[in-house]
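Researcher: I'd like a structural prediction for the single chain below. Treat it as a standalone chain; there are no partners to consider.
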Amino acid sequence: MARQITVDELARMFNARQSVMLLDVRQPWEHETARLPDSVLIPLPELEDRWNEVESPPGTVVVAYCHHGVRSLSAAAFLEARGIEGVVSLAGGIDAWSRHVDPTIPRY
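Model: Treating it as a single chain, here is the predicted structure.
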């Protein structure tokens, strides 16, 4: 099973200016509704064909996220199986981010 991080851990990573790649695995309409800044959108059903687009410099943490953290767990496990290092899933997804870190992010 893929490793998860909490929204508080991600916020600390941002504050520490740690190198992070945000991978949004939701649908385009969800991404348009609410998203984390500088996210790369690859919907989960497209990930099998597009996983090679997940490129990050060494030492970068790839944070997959979705609405509540279920799809992102699948995405992180899929990417790990293909040799992508430093992949984690955001527990609770963007909904948890909106509730606990940034209430300006719309909830849906």
